[in-house]
Amino acid sequence: MKSLIIGVVGPCGAGKTTLIQGLRANGYLAKHIAQEHSYVPQMWSRLTNPDILIYLDVSYPLSIQRRRIDWTSSEYSKQLRRLKHARENADFYLNTDDLTPQEILQQVAEFIDRYQIGHSG
């Protein structure tokens, strides 16, 4: 039962795109929700209304390193404020600072599988 819609949110550089690619390659229906760019707190639910909401987090220094972007800590903090509602409503939160893409995929897939078992009947 992999037909659940899985929404993925988080600040730039957290690993959303890589996770979504990995989930899709494993048969999951995963969608990126660009909540970090929206001023509407519930945009994540309006756009996708996922069955499962995954929140990937990353520290400011690593977000710069991973994305090779030149943004200020103020801009990073602004993204976190825009993501606050999604983070508070996420089914699964994962800080990706010390994890490889494969470890992130594994932890999220394990959560999704547990979620499906718990909601299958």
Q: Any overview of this molecule?
A:
Helix 1 packs across helix 5. It is built from 5 helices and 4 strands. The protein is an alpha/beta fold.
The CATH class designation is Alpha Beta
What's the arrangement of strands in the largest beta sheet?
2-1-3-4
The CATH H-level superfamily is P-loop containing nucleotide triphosphate hydrolases
CATH level-two architecture? 3-Layer(aba) Sandwich
Q: CATH topology, what is it called?
A: Rossmann fold
Radius of gyration: 14 Å
**What class, by secondary structure content?**
alpha/beta
Number of helices: 5
The parts where pLDDT drops under 50 for at least 5 residues are none
What's the total number of strands?
4
Mind describing the biggest β-sheet?
4 strands, parallel
The averaged pLDDT comes out at: 88
Distance between the termini: 12 Å
Shape, per Cα inertia axes: globular
